[in-house]
Amino acid sequence: MRIWYQSLGRLDAWGGYPAHLGAMIERARSAATEIVVNGTKRGIAEYHAALAHEAKGDVLHTLRRAVAEGADAFVIGNFFDIGLEEAREIAPFPVLGLGETSISLSHFMGQSYGLICPNAKYAARLEKRLRADRLDARLAGIAVLDMPRLTAMGDAFDDADARARLLQAIEQAVERDLGAAEVVVPAGGVVMALMDKAGVTRFGNGAPVLNGIAGLVAMAEASVGLARLQGGTFTSRHLSHARPDPQERTRIDELYGPDIFPHWTP
User: Fold this and answer.
1) How far apart (Å, rounded) are the C-alpha atoms in residues 49 and 63?
2) Separation of CA 143 from chain center
3) DSSP strand pairing (73-77 vs 34-38)
4) Digits of tens for pLDDT over the chain (266 positions)?
5) Rounded to the nearest 5 degrees, what angle is found at the Cα of 86, between the Cα atoms of 83 and 90?
């Protein structure tokens, strides 16, 4: 089994994060699974709408590479799930996003979940997305940190004092804002990785911390297995992710080129 893990961050812009991300993925994968970890050349803060728009193109470009290189699944390691809907329309295999998968997994762990967000803009845009996708039904609250420059979190992987300060801020925010949450979900791969590096798996009130990176890998493996049991069927082609019929596909190829919808039949 071959899974493509597409991070939307520059893997040279986050201090010790890429190395720890790789270690987490290595621990999470099954022995027979190969994980291809790929970053982008530009991405650092896709919670800005303009950058998220640009990042969609990066996701779809690398998705087509994953198809060509024989991947069995494609996962988007970004909590906003940028490009998820478009990727599902294109890909011939399961496509999962970190945000949707993490929130879905939290439903198996408790009746409500709370989010840890790095700053107010991030929280506002994420809450809008959750409402639009109807993922907010069990949302108990959002703990908002004061981190306008997200790449600063990369320092905490290599600097124990910086990590201790950040963890203290997280604990205070969770205590203040997430008392009603049965499960705590760090809203982003970097925060998830920091919590893992610090060995934080639950808070003082007993609420577990979801390791969404491990969950994303596990669910991708399960999705591939389920697709095989279902004769290759996973993503629905009825309505939302329906593909063009052959006549329309021919016209799309003429206007956009043959790579828009790679290697599939309607």
Assistant:
1) 21
2) 19
3) unpaired
4) 999 999 988 777 777 889 999 999 999 999 999 999 998 887 666 778 888 888 899 999 999 999 999 999 999 999 999 999 999 999 999 999 999 999 999 999 999 999 999 999 999 999 999 999 999 999 999 999 998 777 778 888 999 999 999 999 999 999 999 999 999 999 999 999 999 999 999 998 899 999 999 999 999 999 999 999 999 999 999 999 988 888 888 888 888 888 787 765 54
5) 125
Quick check: pTM over 0.90? yes
Two structure tokens written together for 42? 């530009």
Q: Could you give the CA distance from residue 18 to residue 190 in angstroms, rounded to a whole number?
A: 9
Structure tokens at 241: 């992710």
Residue among 245, 239, 238, 252 at smallest CA distance from 266: 245
Burial 103-132 (b: 16+ CB within 10 A, else e): bebbeeebebbbbbbbbeebbebbeebbee
- Domains of the chain plus CATH, in order, are 2-218 (3.40.50.12500)
